[in-house]
């Protein structure tokens, strides 16, 4: 039966179908705790960078952008997910579904763009320190911040607009949230063009990942050649590599499983694989940076002590 997508009104999220009420209450408590931690650690790092003038440097501005992106992406998932855990009906409107696709996947691709920009910044700082300040000007920093946000949004806008034109033959999404592949699978007609655009976006961000790896190859080579630079590499680049591995692994799980996953896999494992990139990177990235970057850590504790003194 062909159904005009705009007439559907809402989609049913099938990811909740095998969860009991008791299981959902436990998951609600854990998810709420995770979301509170995500908000706290990201806001704490953003405020530390904004309030501490000596952190107004390109590296920390990009880090602030990464934390803001985590808040942006998780806001598109966690409130709705928490509401669904307490509800007996798990539906999302047609417009809400498309918006969720846009926000969640623009968040994921923006993460890659920001990490690519950060790797470029670290390459200049460690391998070309004498040229760093002449290259990384305020204008260049502003351009790179805009690039890391606007290009993913343009890509995802194209994806969502194309998906909104599809005529659908169903209204059941096989996940805990709306994502583009589930949307495309409901189409009554060929989605070749959508698939081509989707693979173009994937290749584009695989290119980002390759650029990051090439940058770090140069950094590792440089650090091995000049031992005096090794400490700076370990302190400022290891968090980037951990974040890249974290984001890449979780997104690869989601993208590959959505397309090639087995139906025999338990629903609970499917759910975990689908949402981990919305929980693990946003929670761990600020902690990794906060613990590893001495200036950030010291500034955070100094601001906390100052606040206590003011309140006292």
From TrEMBL:
Membrane topology: Multi-pass membrane protein
Annotated InterPro entries: GPCR1_Superfamily_Member, GPCR_Rhodpsn, GPCR_Rhodpsn_7TM, Olfact_rcpt
Name of protein: G-protein coupled receptors family 1 profile domain-containing protein
Keyword Disulfide bond applies: yes
Transmembrane segments: 25-47, 59-79, 91-120, 141-162, 196-220, 241-260, 272-292
SUPFAM superfamilies: Family A G protein-coupled receptor-like
Family matches, as PROSITE patterns: G_PROTEIN_RECEP_F1_1, G_PROTEIN_RECEP_F1_2
Domain G-protein coupled receptors family 1 profile: 41-289
Superkingdom of this protein's organism: Eukaryota
A GO CC term attached to the entry: plasma membrane
Compartments it resides in: Cell membrane
Keywords for the protein's UniProt record, in alphabetical order: Cell membrane, Disulfide bond, G-protein coupled receptor, Glycoprotein, Membrane, Olfaction, Receptor, Sensory transduction, Transducer, Transmembrane, Transmembrane helix
An example molecular function term from Gene Ontology annotations: G protein-coupled receptor activity
Record Pfam families: 7tm_4
Species per Swiss-Prot/TrEMBL record: Poecilia mexicana
